Automatic annotation (TrEMBL), chains A, B:
PANTHER family: BIFUNCTIONAL GLUTAMATE_PROLINE--TRNA LIGASE, PROLYL-TRNA SYNTHETASE. Belongs to the class-II aminoacyl-tRNA synthetase family. It catalyses: tRNA(Pro) + L-proline + ATP = L-prolyl-tRNA(Pro) + AMP + diphosphate. It is an enzyme of class 6 (ligase). SUPFAM superfamilies: C-terminal domain of ProRS (SSF64586), Class II aaRS ABD-related (SSF52954), Class II aaRS and biotin synthetases (SSF55681). Residues 87-335 form the Aminoacyl-transfer RNA synthetases class-II family profile domain. It comes from the Eukaryota. The gene is YHR020W. Gene3D superfamilies: Anticodon-binding domain, Bira Bifunctional Protein, Domain 2, C-terminal domain of ProRS. It holds the Pfam family tRNA-synt_2b. It comes from Lachnellula subtilissima. This is proline--tRNA ligase.
Length: 559, 559
């Protein structure tokens, strides 16, 4: 930081102190969602720390960094503000470009589903029934005579789309058949809702494809999973573990489910990041989606073959995971690639004694710097709001997670440099004005990469291979997820959940993991398997199981 | 077309004839929307002409060109297929890029609105009440105890968004405040629905902005209107007239409405293309969106000022207008800029006598041509489906509206040329293979421009300035819209509608304009005013009015 920032900083400190006092008063209110038409802007800055009360911290950061507004009209709904929508738009562009290359086309199906068609399917397939629980939510009735049957808003679109797949897919030439839509879906969750992670309406993409063979379907499942991993790793700087869901945790109507699983260090919980399902032929049989065998056996008549289907979805949940992992006690920390504003330029050392001419000259420089950065592909702006000290501005942009702060004062100008402060590490330094257009993009990429490396190291350190059952619960309590040799049986998973759940009064540790502590669930069977399972010898780690272990399975307390 | 295409063409003609016979049989069915799980692919090609039955033609073209599928579950809903979604995605990219430069940010508000909040507004403002008629549509009820109030799906988001504007806009520094969202809205239309033009759910963007002054708001209203005109003119090759709506036709809750108006030559009807509203201070007073006056009068305390608001929306309707204007009896005709596939390459002259080596060499050429075109930024593909004659393929791609057909046979190969046929005019010719990468993009731009010029000439020829009342109805019957000197009074418009409506048995002309013929409505007051109105002298053209004319107003039968 440039020396000439010191004077205004002292003022800023005073102001920040006053703000902190004000904020402390409002702390109770801040820990709650903003309610009604009530104005919340008089509470400045974060009032809760990440360690003290993680869930209140999260709630506060998504509101104060202006990512989310609670929708007062109906519980469980959220407004996504521009900071969030910019991230979603970047993800959309990145993903859309890649699935287009794969030959996936865009479609848009209606948001409503008639209750009649739901009942039809209910009768048909037992395995699909659990998914239909989603539909026990909002039903529409209309004053219009036209509408004789009640309809529901889609919770996902399998039942909306597949009747038409049966109509459109008539020959092997129509395969692979791949459609995707970007929309919002409604799931009337009974559980506590959380911004991004669990909302009653959320934005997502849902891809629905059909293939000639299991193998071809399988290739796509993994291609898409790799794109989901790419969204996390390359855009959001969030590490994930790729793997398959167990039978218990897979998509109920499908054949198998692959997943990317994330990890929240603050509470040691796993979180499902995005799933790519192979549906097998379950739905194609249900909806009669078939073609004539293009390669009939010699001398035999061509049979009808049911197609192999996939479905895959990624939602705005990804944004919440990113916030939880990177945010700190000053607020949001955004990875540069998805930050709407990557660098904020703040003038310092401009005060009452600065002549109007000098001030103008200085502000012209800011514009030049911004122009230079724009040409270099950097999204930047300067903050010349009157009536705010540099220190106040520093805090404000830190709260909002801007990856890089650039300070520019008369002394910087004299030395032809600009001072910088990284949001992620707080590291400071100077850069020659002449080399801004190369140095700043490099620095932003360094921030992006360092954020990923840090998060990856944290996840790696908290993913513990365990071969002694006694170590499982202590390891969970130490905020780890665990890999254990497992038989992969559903019943055994249920038992493991029971065995690892604790009663509140037995537990130590942070309040939020008490009351009572959560049992662990299987997160996935990682594709990358550690060594150590000897087929036919190694047993399932569950002491009450006794079966042989099939694979290492990742378990954890989870969202 | 290359000579060597002749042989397969004869086969193709035979096949096409058979197809036509088959199609004729199915004609009755084709004129109806596809119903239920019924397969429609055995009806090949168009069975209705644009002149004979325009509305059946339209219905058939949007289905057979695979733009739309009727949603059988619920009347008035449509599935948008990839051809349509590609167009919408191109429009979205084009428009989004431009509003971002204006500083408009993206947001996403919930789809539901509580009935309670609707009632509150109902009490507040009479002027807004007519819009609330939209809300007498679907109401949600839930088994969930959480949901105590019924909610509606948004028909537009003023009432959803503006309570938050009042929270977020606190100072003149927050202005201009500009948000836009891309979503779908639901209006439970009682009228007959039509694909794209009137659907119960449709995709659109809705922009909602706030400004310090009327003047600043007004500048944006016109900037956006110009972008809407650009979508039509530059992307869809559709001419529009820019103008202001009359008091009778403006957005009920607003201050004034600007509009781009289109024209459908086949039935002479006008169609509203997109509207950009200045809401004035009506909503800001209703929702209490205000700031402190940044320029208080000397010695006076700063007053609170209500902001000036705009809202503006463009929907998938634009696609329907484009189809109606450019389509012909062979099917869809797409302007190149929004065609997913701009050029289709069809091998010709390949038959039983062609050696496998020659065939392979020929098909390799097709790939080279496609690669060349891709590098030149042309979206192309080749059609090497076995078992289809070139002629059948020609018809198929004509039906789907691909702007340019490229035919490539052995004779073309020998001469190092490719033969082309334009979809819009049928014009044929050849291009040297060596100059494909410059000639094809140029030709596509020529097609784009010619399509616009043709449509523009048609609209211009059917926009008649009339100063003799007796000529009005004959002019409408001749499929014109008319500009007349008008007093702009609401009452007079009602009267004009009555006076120009005819009873079915009095009318000549196509069946669809009978039963009974529609009275004319005001479409807009064009910004470009013809000469001839003498202030204080020229009278309103309505013979029963007697008031003075204010401006030329464009009237027409309309959608």
């Amino acid at each position: 930081m440039a020396d000439n920032a010191e004077v205004p900083l002292k003022k800023a400190e005073k102001q920040a102190k006053q703000a902190a006092e004000k904020a402390a008063k409002a702390a109770k209110q801040a820990a709650l969602p903003v309610v009604g038409g009530k104005k919340s802007e008089d509470i400045i800055g974060m009032t809760v720390t990440k360690v003290d009360n993680f869930s209140a911290w999260y709630q506060e950061v998504v509101i104060k960094a202006e990512m989310i507004e609670y929708y007062n009209e109906i519980a469980g709904f959220f407004i996504l503000r521009p900071t969030s929508m910019f991230i979603w738009a970047e993800i959309r562009k990145w993903f859309q470009e890649r699935i287009e290359l794969m030959g996936v086309e865009e479609t848009s199906f209606p948001m409503f589903l008639s209750a009649k068609s739901l009942e039809k399917e209910k009768d048909h397939v037992e395995g699909f029934a659990p998914e239909l629980a989603w539909f026990t939510c909002p039903y529409l009735h209309s004053g219009d005579k036209d509408l004789e049957v009640p309809v529901a808003v889609r919770p996902t679109s399998e039942a909306v789309m597949y009747p038409y797949y049966s109509k459109w897919i008539r020959s092997h030439r129509d395969l692979p058949f791949r459609l995707n839509q970007w929309n919002s879906v409604v799931r009337w969750e009974a559980k506590q809702t959380t911004p991004f992670l669990r909302a009653r309406e959320f934005l997502w993409q849902e891809g629905h494809t059909a293939h000639l063979t299991e193998e071809l379907a399988g290739v796509e499942v993994l291609e898409i999973l790799e794109l989901y991993a790419g969204v996390y790793e390359q855009l959001l700087a969030v590490p994930v573990v790729r793997g398959r869901k167990t039978e218990k945790e897979k998509f109920a109507g499908g054949y198998y489910t692959t997943t990317v699983e994330g990890y929240i260090p603050s509470n040691g919980r796993g979180i499902q990041g995005g799933t790519s399902h192979c549906l097998g032929q379950n739905f194609s049989k249900m909806f009669d989606i078939k073609i004539e065998d293009p390669n009939p056996k010699d001398g035999e008549k061509a049979k009808h073959l049911h197609v192999w289907q996939n479905s895959w979805g990624l939602s705005t949940r990804v944004i919440g995971v990113m916030v939880m992992i990177h945010g700190d006690d000053k607020g949001l920390v955004l990875p540069p690639r998805i930050a709407k504003l990557q660098a904020i330029i703040i003038p310092v050392g401009i005060n009452k004694n600065t002549s109007p001419e000098d001030k103008k000259k200085h502000y012209d420089d800011l514009q030049d710097i911004k122009d230079t950065l724009k040409k270099a592909g950097v999204r930047s702006d300067y903050d010349i709001r009157d009536g705010y000290t540099p220190g106040w501005k520093f805090s404000d942009w830190e709260l909002k997670g801007v990856p890089l702060r650039l300070e520019y004062g008369p002394k910087d100008a004299a030395q032809k440099v600009i001072s910088f402060a990284r949001r992620d590490t707080g590291e400071k330094g100077t850069i020659d004005i002449a080399s801004l257009s190369t140095e700043i993009p490099t620095l932003l990429e360094k921030i992006q990469s360092d954020m990923y490396i840090k998060a990856e190291a944290s996840f790696r350190a908290h993913r513990i291979n365990i071969t002694n059952w006694e170590e499982v619960v202590p390891s969970l309590d130490a905020k780890n997820v665990v890999l254990i040799p497992h038989c992969l049986a559903e019943k055994c998973e249920d038992k493991i959940k029971d065995l690892t759940a604790g009663k509140a009064d037995e537990q130590e540790g942070p309040a939020e993991l008490k009351a009572p502590s959560m049992g662990m669930k299987s997160l996935c069977i990682p594709f990358e398997q550690p060594a150590g399972i000897e087929k036919g010898v190694t047993k399932c780690l569950n002491p009450e199981c006794g079966a042989l272990a099939e694979q290492w399975c990742m378990f954890g307390r989870s969202y």
